[in-house]
Amino acid sequence: MPQLPAPAYPAEVRARLEADAKEVIARYPGSRSALLPLLHLVQSEEGYVSRTGMAFCAELLGLTTAEVTAVATFYTMYRRKPSGDYQVGVCTNTLCAVMGGDAIFDRLKEHLGVGNDETTEDGKVTLEHIECNAACDFAPVVMVNWEFFDNQTPESATRLVDDLIAGRTVEPTRGAPLCSYKETSRILAGFPDERPGAVEASGGAGPASLIGLRLARGEEPYPRVVAPRGESGHADAPQDPEHPSGPTGEEGE
After folding, report:
1. Which candidate, 27, 138, 161, 180, has a CA 20 to 30 Å from the CA of 102?
2. Per-residue pLDDT tens over the stretch 5-19
3. Which segments of 45-155 are extended strands (E)?
4. 87 SS3 class
């Protein structure tokens, strides 16, 4: 068990974080509602949510450290130990795995010499497998600091992490330009992204995700495949040429 109490922030760090925290807390009618953004705020300071950060949040919100710890350990976006400048997450959920996510994850573990939730020796990259990113039409997907890199292969993902480690410019497939994990955490805390063009950058869903919307709008014709309620069949149902009474060859009622 860790020794308690947690060490305090240096005075100048404490003053800066406290000013930011008060700005965040003022946005909510109840102060404890500010816990999630405050955890992102302390993560932006150290790159993870430390015991010092949790104690800071508890003090400002009038919570116990146990209450703060319960939240910090529930959400996977809060790191519990020092991590790299770039959080590289490989989706290994069903569709991404089938499309090659498992192969990508295995290649990166071997290439970087780290396991799941581990960081390279130079402190640049933390690798982890993650659950669905809601981008199945771009599978397999890799995320870096929560920005999308779509339609990846083991080769392209290897080049991606090599570029990150070498400090070369890397552009996400869609969304805002890439920034460090600490900078990402501050943005998630609710502070503006002041980088030129970052707010305007965006990326939408792919064709497979949007087809349902087009069908609902009547922009694309489709056959009815389910009979209306109360009817035993439908005129559009496929017919068996040898048994025109129905697709199964049985007489309808």
Report:
1. 180
2. 788 899 999 999 999
3. 86-91, 118-119, 125-130, 142-144, 147-149
4. strand
